[in-house]
Input
Amino acid sequence: MKDGMGLRERVDGVSFAVRVSPRASRTRFAGVMGAGADAVFKIALAAPPLDGRANEALIAYLADVFSVARSAVEVTAGEHSRNKVVRVKGRSTTQVAEAFKTDKEVELP
Output
């Protein structure tokens, strides 16, 4: 999954594309859209896209999935879009691929 799923290894972590669906019934990993280097991870977010709440929910969810501090997760592109690029510091492409193998649900406030 790491080479063909749009994961990019960086010096300080991994970056990848996500497509969020705000106002979902629950926050969860919803699958992969596309293939190869153009693959995008789909993530459903319970939060609405208002006042940065969806971005905060995405950061909190990914921090939980990867067991890192929220400060280790950053939206590097697409802050006001459903299509985003996220960087997770301190993780490898293998760790990211493994985390997305199963549906990682989390109940967030």
About this structure: Helices lie at 53-66, 93-99.
